Amino acid sequence: MTEPPRVVIADDQALVRTGFGMILAADGIEVVAEAADGDQAVDAVRRTRPDLVLMDVRMPGIDGLEATRRILSGAVADPPRVIILTTFDLDRYVYAALAAGASGFLLKDVTPEHLVAAVRLVRSGDALLAPAITRRLVERFASRGTQAATLHRDLAALTPRELEVLESLAKGLSNAELAVRFRLSEATVKTHVARILAKLRLRDRAQAVVVAYETGLVTPGADTAATGP
Description:
It is a single chain. By secondary structure, the protein is an alpha/beta fold. The chain contains ten helices and five strands, in the order βαβαβαβαβαααααα. It has a five-stranded parallel sheet with strand order 2-1-3-4-5, with helices on both faces. Strand 1 (6-10), helix 1 (14-26) and strand 2 form a beta-alpha-beta unit. The radius of gyration is 17 Å and the shape is globular. 41% of the residues are buried.
């Protein structure tokens, strides 16, 4: 039986930390530490070695974006996955957080059911964001000089088919839609996606979408086949 996720909650509002903690605990998810700012978040991760961090963006001192960079840049051994918490649907900081390695984001008014599902999904190794939502973020902010940790990857390592899959993934297609487009089984699509992530040294699909835009494989405003928003 898989052990329940171990989570750190980083938010400068005690009420938010308490509320999220109660929701997760009610579903058997252990909150191993809380943090009120970025420094505390990094320290809590080093001390408790959680599976996942719920990270607010706007906090005093070191903000959630810098804390995410520090946690995922190698400063912490075996780093956890990070879900960014934000008040706004298209917060400009979210794009930079994805570029820094975060696995997705949640709005703070998320329902209890969605919060629990998101934690379990990301802990399992998937990205929280639907690619179409990630694409919206990238298209809005990628060309604006955002202070992001730009990801430099050599796409030459990918086969022609893997490039096609990455391009379509970045335009918002799900695995099922990719299977239809390329006339492949979903299992084969998952294999292609896994190889893309491995070759580009990426954590999940959210980062793959960012890389596709930052390398110019897909350009903001290009025609997309996404079915999502």
